[in-house]
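Blackboard transcription, Thursday session:
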Amino acid sequence: MQVETTTIATTSPKLVDCYRAVRNFSLKLCETLSPEDCTIQSMPDASPTRWHLAHTTWFFETFLLRERGDYRRYSEDFEVLFNSYYNTVGEQFPRPHRGLLSRPSLGEVLAYRDYVDEQMVRLLNDRVEEVDSIVTLGLQHEQQHQELMLTDIKHMLGRNPLEPVYRDGNWHSAQARGSEWLEFDEGLYEIGHSSQPRAEAFAFDNESPVHRHFLPPFRLASQLVTCGDFMRFIDDGGYQKPELWLSEGWNTANNDGWQAPLYWRQSQGQWSHFTLGGQRPVDMNRPVCHVSYFEADAYARWAGLRLPTEFEWEVAALDESKRATNQATFADSLIASDDVVHPIGSDALMGDVWQWTASQYTAYPGYVAPAGALGEYNGKFMCNQFVLRGGSCATHSTHARATYRNFFAPAARWQFSGIRLAK
Amino acid sequence: MQVETTTIATTSPKLVDCYRAVRNFSLKLCETLSPEDCTIQSMPDASPTRWHLAHTTWFFETFLLRERGDYRRYSEDFEVLFNSYYNTVGEQFPRPHRGLLSRPSLGEVLAYRDYVDEQMVRLLNDRVEEVDSIVTLGLQHEQQHQELMLTDIKHMLGRNPLEPVYRDGNWHSAQARGSEWLEFDEGLYEIGHSSQPRAEAFAFDNESPVHRHFLPPFRLASQLVTCGDFMRFIDDGGYQKPELWLSEGWNTANNDGWQAPLYWRQSQGQWSHFTLGGQRPVDMNRPVCHVSYFEADAYARWAGLRLPTEFEWEVAALDESKRATNQATFADSLIASDDVVHPIGSDALMGDVWQWTASQYTAYPGYVAPAGALGEYNGKFMCNQFVLRGGSCATHSTHARATYRNFFAPAARWQFSGIRLAK
Amino acid sequence: MQVETTTIATTSPKLVDCYRAVRNFSLKLCETLSPEDCTIQSMPDASPTRWHLAHTTWFFETFLLRERGDYRRYSEDFEVLFNSYYNTVGEQFPRPHRGLLSRPSLGEVLAYRDYVDEQMVRLLNDRVEEVDSIVTLGLQHEQQHQELMLTDIKHMLGRNPLEPVYRDGNWHSAQARGSEWLEFDEGLYEIGHSSQPRAEAFAFDNESPVHRHFLPPFRLASQLVTCGDFMRFIDDGGYQKPELWLSEGWNTANNDGWQAPLYWRQSQGQWSHFTLGGQRPVDMNRPVCHVSYFEADAYARWAGLRLPTEFEWEVAALDESKRATNQATFADSLIASDDVVHPIGSDALMGDVWQWTASQYTAYPGYVAPAGALGEYNGKFMCNQFVLRGGSCATHSTHARATYRNFFAPAARWQFSGIRLAK
Amino acid sequence: MQVETTTIATTSPKLVDCYRAVRNFSLKLCETLSPEDCTIQSMPDASPTRWHLAHTTWFFETFLLRERGDYRRYSEDFEVLFNSYYNTVGEQFPRPHRGLLSRPSLGEVLAYRDYVDEQMVRLLNDRVEEVDSIVTLGLQHEQQHQELMLTDIKHMLGRNPLEPVYRDGNWHSAQARGSEWLEFDEGLYEIGHSSQPRAEAFAFDNESPVHRHFLPPFRLASQLVTCGDFMRFIDDGGYQKPELWLSEGWNTANNDGWQAPLYWRQSQGQWSHFTLGGQRPVDMNRPVCHVSYFEADAYARWAGLRLPTEFEWEVAALDESKRATNQATFADSLIASDDVVHPIGSDALMGDVWQWTASQYTAYPGYVAPAGALGEYNGKFMCNQFVLRGGSCATHSTHARATYRNFFAPAARWQFSGIRLAK
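(Written on the board underneath:)
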């Protein structure tokens, strides 16, 4: 506890810099996008880039600036337009209709960002300590949306037969040959994030409380499943064998005609896939990505293995991070970072692709959602979702940690989601 | 026949000017629109403005330029992307997905237009007479899309709670007080457009062949039904009385919650409606607009009257035009026009709003669709559509004529469609 | 007028016999059906047999018995349960949910029929002349439902992989080889049914008023299109050529995977179809049946011909019936009939299959729906339907006439609908 | 292990009696049903009674009789028709279409049962020990379908405005006034069913392997939530407060218009509900039933408490059963039972209503689905379902046990599902 207080005290001077760094990074992600690119919603689960830019701004305005008496809102209309799902705040413009709005224009959304940023910087310079935790939450929130901007843009561009390039380059690192088994003993392990910081000062509410969980002995693969591995599953008729699949997965795969991961396409015997760098041949040494939980689960069954639980994953990741040095704080890392999204090295558990776990997303024992609107952030989604652990090529390096619980519906494929096996 | 040839001969020198005038007018319609505005498809029946701009260009490229050996296409991809529904030409990008395309950008679509325009002007200057009829068809086609650009933009802006203004001003003229009954005798009337021009040189294939149709005596209202008239229908519970409605209309009205014309909204006892000039109070003296066939039909039944057939309407309109002077040709009118869409005076049958007729859209006796892709223009839609006659505030003044047959599904409300009564 | 009065006067003594004959015939149609058969609704457009038996009874109860002060309803609940679509009468149990009702049981529905029949016979024996026209309407109504019982039972049994037999025997007559062209002159023809009976005493409201219609010269095929004819269309790729189809037809055929008429199945190179007599090889000499308007229209276009208008068909049929002798009244025929549904000889225009016409179903000039609930019988469906003429193997022989207008949506295939060509 | 063998050995003589008892009980449940009642499928999740009767028979035929060389199948068609979801066995008639089949009739299904029963009794009398475990599985399977027959019949009758009565009587026992808190210590508990029988000889595969689970201290309510308790939630606006609901629950409740548990109806200020005994006033002292997981979860949040995990529930139930005496085997109980479905006393954890737990349905550590078709029984549904514990008024008293894991989707309301609170 004492440590944390100290941490905040010493990092507080830098919070305004963190704020600037994160906010700038959102704009940096849009550098290659046109107003048209920023307008389209390619499916109800995705949002237009313009909306992400506005909603993350709305978050600071709603949960920080509006709480202060002297603040004058940029626009009354934006309260509803850019509310994502906070019923406690009020009505929301319907999510599936976000793509119907051509106004406010990209230009006006940027002006809205400037307006709020100016007020926020003033607020942060005023050194009001009690806002620090919400500012940090807002920055973590914006980092989550930065990843969504990339997944949503990829989905939208991927629908376009012109196969546009977002940004050239390799988005995934090659896996080392020969996965090994990392071994762990049975035991009553501590799971979750406490106010006693382990490696980071910040965590979402759904990572707590810390609690004990009993695990039998288990093993985790040192490497991710690669495209080459997954090709063998395809070639062996994995998509045609119902006995490998969960019932709901089998129905989904058949109804939607799945024959390979999302974005994969076979043409004249060659597999290529749509990437943020355009249409590319599938590289068999890189981790398979854009698979649903259903595919990850079927693959594991086909391989005679299984997916890890989120608890196994966390135990392994904490073990790894204990061995690591240089545990920088969020603020330190962020400022130090070169402002590009970059994959964490492939010898670590974290990075490259989010890893589906066998764990359905549920509350930790003793969890109670925070009071007020921010209580809607995580708790109300604890149903029909599976936990993913790790982080991906689209996750900012300062946004990953061993206790982080990402979650998506088991049919979701447009996230950067892959597979790590256990037994 | 002879006359027509002559007409074309004398107007031919001006065809290139017509081309320029029509093409420019499309751009003029976009002057107040942003790239974001031009990107969105607000429902499957509507298309993004950018798509309209490209598709009308594709029409000239496909049916004129590509027929000429030396032409080099602007882009191979555009053949599929901007094909609307011509199966004979080839595959089409699915209509409901037109709003998924952020590329080609507005800028590139404009470049595409420039490229094709340059080739077209060269072709027209070369005075190749046999292309004249297809050029004219292409220009009429573009004029149809100019109206659709306005109806689709209105629909898209109308979904936006910010109520954006497209262009200020009154879009409908006030009706004279006191409608009168225009009387017509029974008789065997000639219907349709022949190669013997009546008032214009051009007509679509669905307006021919000329044929005889027997009509009992009938009367047509001199004025359109006004918003005030329609308010009395609403106030009398017209939307709650199934006995006034066609069965399918009643189901549609209930499923979609119709309580007034599209874009109407009641707030604190006052009715306003969304217009291209923004949200405005309903002016009771102007013609009611944005009603479906179902509403037009229910209104007529409520009034103890009926809708005219398309044959009655045409007989009356030809009678009117015979009395009119100054029958300018398409080319003359177009060049003379001040390049703004303007309503035709409300004392004429034509103008202000398209008028639903009681006639389902069907082939005239002896009609055979033209061979080839252009045969798909009109004929294949002769099913489950009703004919509208007249023209609207969004119809270019050079695009209306007595024999013109517009058609839409009976539930359609986003066109500028209104009501003229008969008995 | 005088003639009609006379007719009714002389047939009145027999109306109670007609009543008994028609009502019995409905039961006869159920002889081979189990309670389970009578319960199922295989699609929203179809109804359970039990519902047909009850609804036709409801019709007499509602429009005749309930009008008489002393009548005590069989069940209050049935007023809503067995109201098909009469908003003027009151609420209706939702049509798509008719298959959710296991009660009242078949036994109770039969008891309901007995109860109403007893009252009806008493009423008819009381010789209250003013009810005669509604009784006749009720009997014609029940005859329509007798055909629907057969089409709906066929559809339901056709979904069952056990391929149950309803009743053995041939349901269609073979066509004579070599169709000829029946020729008709141009002229201003009288169309529709007047109170001056032509061949029959009864007609529905939508067959009037009589009015004049101008027709250019035309020809009608003496024979129906056969399965063999239609096979050539299939073999020539008719279902794969968009240029033959209406746009909506092409979409429907593709979305629903049409490759042949409804109930046809190809297995090991042989075509068979499900019939009321079970699964049978397709007989190439019998008329093609269970085609939609879309298929009929595409077939005609493929053959270089067209479908007749309903006016052409009526002119030809009246011409034929003028040549025929023995114009029995409805009552005479009904009593004389041997109580089986039997096809009219294939040398007549009428019989075997309903024939799609090119005419969309619309009001005759001057038509006004009758006041009150019975006005909902026909008028409110004048939209998005095509007229069929003739009658089918499932139409009682006393139910067909030259002016009869049947109508269905253009995608409907479960009726006994076929094709006669014109040019 | 030794114990189990012994158990089976001594009960084996009675297995044929168990078989007869369970099979007869299915028929007993149909005594008040008509063939029409047994035909209808009121929603895709429900099945017609006739289908349940046939499918449970198919189970014995497929997994026991067909394995024996000399068996001659009753019907080749039934293999597909009555296969529920066993892909390993082969194709299945589509589940949502089970209500389209009027054949085989109820009579023929009963004949099918007789045919299979005769063969089964012969097989059981032959004393082939290795089939015992599959016979027992088949009987447990039939007991599950007996409960489904009741829930599905209730759902079907509940759609009927005639409000038919299945069988009179009280289906739920009154709760004692004043719930108490049962307290449990923290600890590493053993969860699941082993081959070392605790209270019963049989368990499903998903109840094993036995494993250790750490639990913090917890308390469980001694009584179920009553209708009166739940009324206070309704009266307090529970259905209108999004902050009480999971996000998906809130959407479901709004889309489907939930305002009270399924089958509840308010009329003139009084609440009644549809029961298997017809429409009845809601008895405020009886347990609330027909709530979804979403409603159970929202209720618990409103009450400031929570739902128990399935592990907590099992620990408590085992504790209870340890205190109980008279641990009869399945066979003993079954034969002794008076063949009626009867609620277990309300002072026990088990009985009256299934109790939603906070646990999503997932595999126990080390669980591997059995090889072959029977491996599809439970494992492939481990996704997007929540575990229910206990048993209900529709569960046969011999079918409940402390380790039993029932599971349904969180939106399901047609099961007899209620609420027990924890903290």
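Lecturer's comment: Residues 2-29 of chain B form the longest helix (28 residues).
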